[in-house]
Each structure stands twice: as structure tokens, then as C-alpha cells.
Amino acid sequence: MQEAIVTIKFTLSEIDRLINSLNLLKTMRIPVEPEWKIPYKNLLKDLKRIKENTEQASADYQSNKNSEAFRDTQLLEWKRTGQAGCKNGKCD
């Protein structure tokens, strides 16, 4: 039997809900062998890793976005004042 790989899009809040649901399932106590929980525990680990990677990528993006915005603002200010690279009337 072959497995298919598909792309599924989730928001961070949806990933949080899935993680919470799997945590509840993981802690559920029923009188049968707990081996059935193994795939769910693996899925939980994967979702936690995906969430961490997504949050890190988002933080990196925001950091880069903010620094680019600052540079763009500085460039506009320099263009407006005509003082980009100039000091005491001498320009680079």
C-alpha cells in the first residue's frame, strides 16, 4: 500500500487546536492497550515541530520586514533632505 503526500494549509490557531486535541487524546485513560496512541503521539510531535518552525519563520520574517522598513524610511529621509552620505557639504 502506497502512502500519498498532500499539502494541507493550517493557521497557527488551527495548529494550536489540533495540538490541544491530541494532548487530550494522549492523556485519556481507557482500559485497552495504549499502543493505539502511538500514531497520535507521533502526530503531536510533528505538529509541535511544525508550530515551532512556523513561529520562528514568522519571527524571522517580521524582523527582516522591520529592518527593511527602517532602511526604506531612512532612504526616503535622506532623499528628502539631500543628506545621504554627505557631511559638511562633502559627499562620498
Structure overview:
The longest helix is centred in the middle third of the chain and has 44 residues, at 38-81. The protein has helices at 12-27, 38-81; strands at 86-87, 90-91. The protein contains 2 helices and 2 strands; from the N terminus they run ααββ. The radius of gyration is 25 Å and the shape is elongated. It is 65% helix and 4% strand. With 92 residues, it is mainly alpha-helical. The chain has a two-stranded antiparallel ribbon.
Helical content class: 55-70%
- Give the number of DSSP strands: 2
Largest sheet: 2 strands, antiparallel
Provide the succession of SSEs. HHEE
Helix and strand content put the structural class at mainly alpha
Strand content: under 5%
Number of helices: 2
Identify low-pLDDT runs: none
> Roughly what is the average pLDDT, rounded to an integer?
78
- How far the N terminus sits from the C terminus, by CA atoms, comes to 68 Å
Q: Going across the major beta sheet, what is the strand order?
A: 1-2
Q: Roughly how many Å is the radius of gyration? A: 25 Å
